[in-house]
């Protein structure tokens, strides 16, 4: 059983405010459920932000009444509360009510699900970064703390942040070493990124060969995805927001090329940059990839598709260096017209976005019935950086081993004659370089 299934955050009332439309609470309700809350009521308001409570003062009192009526123990607020609003709103609510804003909620989900030490460190760091301004505010209000500078809770939080940043840097350095080793071994790196619940992990399973890799630091492979400390559950799939809380890497063979596919943590709208940055393992994987598959749930409505893709692109714009290949998934839920419409919205949104990397045309797939998956494989191979070479080696006893080495790593067309073997080879640039070295060795023997 997943640890989160045992969680109960208690009974919660959801509150949301938006300036120019009536808030849609679908997503915040789902997030609350992912964090283990039982949503027993909601209250929405269309209004500009009130400085004191965020909601209007009347609405804040109404919220308190709903909490009392429903015997809720928590309020989940869809948005960011300033430290001041947090304190003031809490004072209006019945005593003992817990108040959780959108960031805090996401942090709770992550804290409950984090398995590996990197994930735990990331969540702790994000939590402390979230708390720092609040601690600062509390301590500014307390003369006492200012007087005893040394034992200040602010300094304490700052010190813990430094410490976690250092630890995380070590872990991400190790991951970077591992990636560069894999690249030297001739792997192409492909990351799946996108909004939470888009279908990334399901697609990963569709594309991947059976072996999980990168489960540990020594470069050996982990065959069942459970043995090593880094991987608890390999790319589990569920209809829940933030099912995947750590990056996982699997092997795939695409067009003869050896690819490492990395599943990343889902994104969600309206999280502060600081928080997103805390999940550096995800960001690093995206940054280091040759290609990022930007996975989009095609069965969402146009506005959702646009908003979710924009959220994804925001992260990619800062961090991706490889090409972006958009994938519209779950098309088994769509008729042809809606599928075309979804593809068009994705293409338009991406064209309008400010990314300075190559972007490709969207590919429509269903990870459930496999439709479009072959076309996706081909699109990935087309988008991979490719070098070509014509290699000629003597037709000797060692040649066969060389030829099968090539077949395992790229596209090889082989022509034999009595004296020599000629191979037209295409593959990752690093593999082609290595192939040329090996061919030269064979010629010199
Ligand atoms: N109909 C249909 N459902 C899909 C498809 N792909 C994924 N799903 C469903 O969508 C839900 C989310 O899938 P996941 O693969 O867990 O999504 P994810 O992007 O990894 O989500 P997070 O890890 O939470 O970020 C699950 O209930 C899947 O069964 C698809 O091609 N068709
Ligand atoms: Mg996932």
From TrEMBL:
Coiled coil segments of this chain: 154-181
PROSITE patterns for the chain: G_HFLX
Residues reported in the UniProt entry to bind GTP: 194-201, 263-266, 366-368
Keyword list, A-Z: Coiled coil, GTP-binding, Magnesium, Metal-binding, Nucleotide-binding
Coiled coil among keywords: yes
Binding site for Mg(2+): 201, 244
InterPro entries: G_HFLX_dom, GTP-bd, GTPase_HflX, GTPase_HflX_N, GTPase_HflX_N_sf, P-loop_NTPase
UniProt cofactor(s): Mg(2+)
Segments forming domain Hflx-type G: 188-388
GO molecular-function terms, A-Z: GTP binding; metal ion binding
Name of the molecule in the record: GTPase HflX
Annotated organism of origin: Halobaculum marinum
């Amino acid at each position: 059983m997943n640890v989160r299934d045992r969680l109960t955050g208690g009974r919660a009332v959801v509150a949301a405010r938006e300036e120019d439309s009536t808030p849609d609470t679908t997503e915040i309700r789902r997030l609350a459920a992912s964090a283990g809350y039982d949503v027993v009521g909601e209250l929405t308001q269309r209004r500009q932000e009130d400085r004191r409570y965020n909601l209007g003062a009347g609405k804040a009192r109404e919220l308190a009444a709903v909490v009392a009526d429903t015997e809720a123990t928590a309020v989940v607020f869809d948005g960011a509360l300033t430290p001041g609003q947090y304190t003031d709103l809490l004072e209006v609510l019945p005593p003992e009510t817990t108040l959780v804003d959108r960031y805090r909620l996401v942090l709770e989900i992550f804290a409950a699900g984090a398995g590996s030490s990197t994930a735990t460190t990331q969540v702790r760091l994000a939590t402390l970064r979230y708390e720092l301004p609040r601690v600062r505010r509390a301590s500014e209000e307390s003369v006492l703390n200012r007087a005893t500078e040394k034992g200040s809770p602010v300094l304490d939080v700052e010190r813990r942040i430094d410490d976690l940043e250092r630890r995380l840097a070590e872990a991400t350095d190790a991951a970077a070493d591992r990636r560069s080793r894999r690249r030297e071994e001739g792997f192409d790196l492909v990351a799946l990124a996108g909004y939470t619940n888009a279908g990334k992990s399901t697609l990963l399973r569709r594309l991947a060969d059976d072996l999980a890799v990168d489960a540990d630091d020594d470069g050996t492979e982990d065959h069942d995805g459970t043995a090593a400390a880094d991987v608890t559950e390999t790319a589990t799939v569920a209809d829940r927001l933030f099912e995947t809380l750590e990056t996982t890497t699997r092997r795939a063979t695409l067009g003869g090329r050896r690819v490492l596919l990395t599943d990343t943590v889902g994104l969600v709208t309206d999280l502060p940059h600081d928080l997103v940055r805390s999940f550096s393992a995800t960001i690093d994987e995206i940054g280091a990839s040759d290609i990022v598959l930007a996975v989009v749930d095609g069965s969402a409505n146009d506005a959702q598709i646009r908003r979710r893709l924009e959220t994804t692109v925001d992260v990619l714009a800062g961090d991706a260096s490889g090409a972006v290949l958009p994938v519209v998934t779950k098309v088994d839920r769509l008729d042809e017209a809606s599928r075309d419409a979804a593809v068009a919205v994705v293409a338009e949104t991406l064209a309008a976005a400010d990314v300075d990397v190559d972007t490709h045309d969207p590919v429509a797939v269903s990870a459930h019935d496999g439709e479009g998956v072959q076309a996706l494989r081909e699109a990935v191979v087309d988008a991979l950086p490719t070098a070509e070479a014509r290699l000629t080696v003597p037709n000797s006893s060692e040649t066969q081993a060389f030829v099968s080495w090539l077949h395992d790593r790229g596209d090889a067309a082989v022509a034999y004659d009595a004296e020599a073997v000629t191979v037209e080879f295409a593959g990752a640039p690093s593999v082609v370089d290595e192939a040329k070295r090996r061919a030269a060795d064979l010629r010199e023997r």
